[in-house]
Amino acid sequence: MDKLNLESLLRKNIQKLKPYQAKEIPCKIKLDANESPFPVKLSDFISEINIHLNRYPDPEAILLRKALARKVKLSHENIMPGNGSDELIYYLILTFGGPVLYPAPTFAMYGIIAQSVGVEIVECSLDNNFDINDEEFLKLIKLKKPRLIFLSSPNNPTGNTFSTDKILKIIEFAQENSSIVVIDEAYQPFSSKKGFLPFLKDYDNLLILRTLSKIGFAGLRLGYLIGEKNFLYEINKVRLPYNVDSITQYVATEALNRFYPQIKKFICQIIKERQRLYRELLRIQKIKVYPSEANFILLQIENSKSIYRKLIKAGILVRDLSSVINNALRITIGTSEENEEFLKTIRKILGET
């Protein structure tokens, strides 16, 4: 019997695709995945999970949507939760197709999901300050007529927010060219900017993505899409049934209703530590450090791969981004003690103790 030729059965776009890498490397200090460094246990805000696991979850996630809606001061009908923002990005591309336009470098999943679905991707390089090259971006909108435009602001992995004026110019031009703009605000809670929720009423081609992952609940895998009801109605056609499980719905709802003041305290601590870590890194001559509005800091350092390996040997895991940005590392903001240990170790590695 002939052996199955698996590759011949793959769609061509899948043959060329490389999977998203989320490797788990054991280290005592984990500063690689843009998670909150503060442990959150169910017992911090829940005494008993009062749900019946023999029943399917609420298919409409009504209580969760209402809890999210209260935080953004909108109707729950303007909210669609998903199994992480990744699922919602997938639904968006599945619903509207391509081309899909986004700046580069940015969150890898826009491109990976678009390629897996089989639509054209269009990348527009950021300028030297990691801001949007608006002239080039507008040209690509006119030339390529993208169905979807993704803008992550604050941007992962660079950490900066894009200029509000440039984003508004893109939204307006996209509207004239029948393109949808999705602002991914995963890191907005850490930013000094207010974000784009106030503009939803002004532009009918605007959608906003947010998540609970960065503010202490990465283990729940809960993202949510904010937009007009007519948009969500169409996207709901491709949503898998019961896509947010009962435990996630219950825990997230309780966290939003009972634990949110503590979440805000954690966010303030992360911002304070980010500012301190940034100041300390500026004092290290061999490092180029970039200002950040997120819960991480991007830096460039000569021989970054070697530095990355030495940090792992010392028990500190950061993100190696040298394949995306030359000699770049991304450092998630940890606790004060973790950040101090990172500073002490990087100084020692660079001989600046």
UniProtKB/TrEMBL annotation:
Transmembrane segments: none annotated. InterPro entries: Aminotransferase_I/II_large, HisP_aminotrans, PyrdxlP-dep_Trfase, PyrdxlP-dep_Trfase_major, PyrdxlP-dep_Trfase_small. Keywords: Amino-acid biosynthesis, Aminotransferase, Histidine biosynthesis, Pyridoxal phosphate, Transferase. The modification N6-(pyridoxal phosphate)lysine is found at K214. Its EC number is 2.6.1.9. It catalyses: L-histidinol phosphate + 2-oxoglutarate = 3-(imidazol-4-yl)-2-oxopropyl phosphate + L-glutamate. It comes from the Bacteria. It is an enzyme of class 2 (transferase). GO terms for biological process: L-histidine biosynthetic process. Pathway: Amino-acid biosynthesis; L-histidine biosynthesis; L-histidine from 5-phospho-alpha-D-ribose 1-diphosphate: step 7/9. Its cofactor is pyridoxal 5'-phosphate. Residues 29-346 form the Aminotransferase class I/classII large domain. GO terms for molecular function: histidinol-phosphate transaminase activity; pyridoxal phosphate binding. Belongs to the class-II pyridoxal-phosphate-dependent aminotransferase family. Histidinol-phosphate aminotransferase subfamily. Homodimer. PANTHER family: HISTIDINOL-PHOSPHATE AMINOTRANSFERASE, HISTIDINOL-PHOSPHATE AMINOTRANSFERASE-RELATED. This is Histidinol-phosphate aminotransferase. It comes from Thermodesulfovibrio aggregans.
